[in-house]
């Protein structure tokens, strides 16, 4: 990909910037500023170079969601004007009045259904706004949409500073230094199976926690009771008995007559539910963390949203103070670390969720491919 730094003269040029600002917002309050803060270096660079920056992004999953709270938060860091919908009259009026270094922010780009559909007329509308396109939205780099993908073929297209950094950092962990540890949690084994297969090959040890571990316990013929498992039981798991695979050696269960208790995975009863990895597992992981040179982590180890946060939080603290090269990604893992305010202790924190998994599996994503083709 060509970096935005390579453009010789940005002064007075209209730059359509796609950033990643998908932050949790509750009743107008921006609950995490992690992605917003990571979008600032490229914005500041374009602003200082005198470009006329047209800032686009999406938020949430419902099309009616608004970027207004993010806009207000953004203004605490640098001056941004509100342009409303990118197809509106307010937008074209304000766009026409822009001076060098101004930043005009558009409303949630997904309010227009043509964004997700990558509709040619919407792509053409976006392209008509600017002289150059800059993509800095790593978290949406797996989405073939108008402002992330379609537009990259219509204008001279460049990668923003954060997107470049993401690619460099994630490539590094695809060639880990030994001893290497890969932690994978969360759910949805069907989508993560190829990733596990790949990292069992690449890393010295792969620990699987969260609901993913339940699927593997089940595949090994153990009782998992009422635990969360994939709809389709796993079949023919090539790494099921691999020496590289680590699973929780004790689990926290609830729901049965013993109530909330810690036991070995072999002792789970039909009316119980596995909710987190137990203290012996945390200690075991700590011994591996101590010796590791590379640690890559995606996905929490327990039913995090239900308050089963212990295995994830204690392990996060151990990883944070380890001397290894430490990289974490995935919305839930990053939110957990953000809550503990230990982000700065990791070598790199990826802004992506699905995009990070996609990149780690394939070494690229559709958007990165397209930006690379533009060289
Ligand atoms: C994310 O939050 O992971 C990205 O912004 C992508 O959002 P999406 O899954 O709604 O496309």
Describe the 3D structure.
This protein has 375 residues and is of the alpha/beta class. The protein folds into two domains: 4-163, Rossmann fold, CATH 3.40.50; 173-361, Rossmann fold, CATH 3.40.50. It is 35% helix and 17% strand. It has helices spanning 34-48, 68-74, 89-96, 113-116, 120-127, 161-173, 189-202, 210-219, 279-291, 310-320, 331-340, 354-362, 366-373; strands at 14-18, 25-26, 29-30, 52-56, 81-84, 103-106, 132-135, 157-159, 180-184, 205-208, 245-246, 251-254, 261-263, 273-277, 294-298, 325-329, 348-349. A six-stranded parallel beta sheet has the order 5-6-4-1-7-8, with helices on both faces. A six-stranded parallel beta sheet has the order 11-10-9-15-16-17, sandwiched between helices. Strands 13-12-14 form a three-stranded antiparallel beta sheet. Strand 9, helix 7 (189-202) and strand 10 (205-208) form a beta-alpha-beta unit. The longest helix has 15 residues, at 34-48. The protein is elongated, with a radius of gyration of 22 Å. The mean pLDDT is 96. 3-phosphoglyceric acid binds at residues 20, 22, 61, 139-140, 143, 331, 353-354. 3-phosphoglyceric acid (3PG) is lined by residues 20, 22, 61, 139-140, 143, 331, 353-354.
Sum up the structure in keywords.
six-stranded parallel sheet, 375 residues, Rossmann fold, elongated, 2 domains, 17 strands
Proportion of helical residues: 25-40%
**How many beta-strand segments?**
17
* Poorly predicted parts: none
The rounded Rg comes to 22 Å
Q: Kindly report how far apart the N and C termini lie.
A: 7 Å
Characterize the quaternary organization of these chains: single chain
Second rung of CATH, namely the architecture of the largest domain: 3-Layer(aba) Sandwich
Summarize the biggest pleated sheet: 6 strands, parallel
CATH-derived topology of the largest domain: Rossmann fold
CATH homologous superfamily grouping of the largest domain = Phosphoglycerate kinase, N-terminal domain
Q: Please state roughly what percent of the residues sit in beta strands, choosing from under 5%, 5-15%, 15-25%, 25-35%, 35-45% or over 45%.
A: 15-25%
Task: Give the ordered list of helices and strands.
Answer: EEEHEHEHEHHEEHEHEHEEEEHEHEHEHH
Category from helices, strands and their pairing: alpha/beta
Strand line-up of the largest beta sheet: 5-6-4-1-7-8
Global morphology: elongated
Mean pLDDT: 96
